[in-house]
Amino acid sequence: MLKSHFNLQNKTEPEQDQFLETSETEEAQDKQDAQDALEGEGLSEEEVTEQKVVYPERRLNRSEATCTGMSLTNISAIRSFQHLQFVNFSNNNLDLESLQDVTALPFLVLIHADKNVLYSAALKKMKYMQVIIMNNNFLTSVHDVYQPELCTLEVGYNKIKEISFANKMPHIKCLDFRYNLIQEIHDIDFPNLDSLYLAGNKITSLVGIERLVNLRILHVRYNPIKLLNGFDAGLKKLQYINLRNCKVATLKQVKKLRVLPGLETLILKGCPYMGGTGEEDDEVGVEEEDTDLRVEVLASLPKLKRINKGACTPEERSEAKELIKQWIEEGENDEEEVVEEQELEENSNAD
């Protein structure tokens, strides 16, 4: 389901109060948490899980056509509806050649084509196309995707190995590559990007993230990330980072986020530092969180408003201030911590 928070009728103006979430239950909750943390409230929306029965649906109105779960292999009839702006052909049997029929619609803004048989997302160039959603297909690359006005590309649950495009698309503001095969982002270069979703990939390093100077939301849950290198003070708009079930193991790594002047929400649930294992099925957090660890994180990053799913309380802030004083008196970087970090860096480099 579309989660872009941009007004599709005016691509230059983001809607500040809405996020439409993905259909996967846990991912939807993560996205809702991000929006709640940044804006104080989220958009209520019925969430459809994989377990629920999906019935065929055919609906056509003045600007939108929905034909889902109908086992379609040919949609040439859609060419007759030249007025359409939004089309949804999810849960069918369409390949790219069949889907190209939508490119004959002169005013099309959004195409939703989850769960088809798409091996490429290279639709012919369209004048107004702003949102492409092709989750759960068979995509291995997005290199040949080009739409001059594209602002949102959602291609989760495919087999894509890198985020790379042959042609630049300067209007892109939201990229969603959840659960693909991406290993690194060092070449990523989208200066206008607002939201980046990379959960469930193979990423070990966030070096390259510093290029995304307008980034506001970074979601990298369940990646083998141990070291939090790559962040710098130029990421002034970055407010929300989700590192749930990553491999962050020490407070020293958390302290590297001090360079981020606008960071308000940090998710570390499931990381070794918080007592987790870094595995996706980890149920850390069912019991009450370790309050001492929350205070350590808050002392390291005093500007935080939320840690994991809980808002920082006045009591935690008071304890954090006392801990900061203690660190100053004792010397923040003791020998044991430095040795531990050196070993971690060496092991990561060896990997």
From TrEMBL:
Coiled-coil ranges (or none): none
Alphabetical list of SUPFAM superfamilies matching this protein:
L domain-like (SSF52058)
One of the Pfam families matching this protein, by short name: LRR_4
User: Which portions of the sequence form the region Disordered?
Assistant: 1-49, 331-351
Tell me yes or no: is Repeat among this UniProt entry's keywords: yes
Bias (Acidic residues): 15-27, 36-48
Q: Where is the composition biased (Polar residues)?
A: 1-11
Keywords for this protein: Leucine-rich repeat, Repeat
What InterPro entries does UniProt report for this protein, alphabetically? Leu-rich_rpt (IPR001611), Leu-rich_rpt_4 (IPR025875), LRR_dom_sf (IPR032675), SDS22/Internalin_LRR (IPR050836)
Protein name, entry field:
Jg5658 protein
What lineage does UniProt assign to this protein's organism? Eukaryota, Metazoa, Ecdysozoa, Arthropoda, Hexapoda
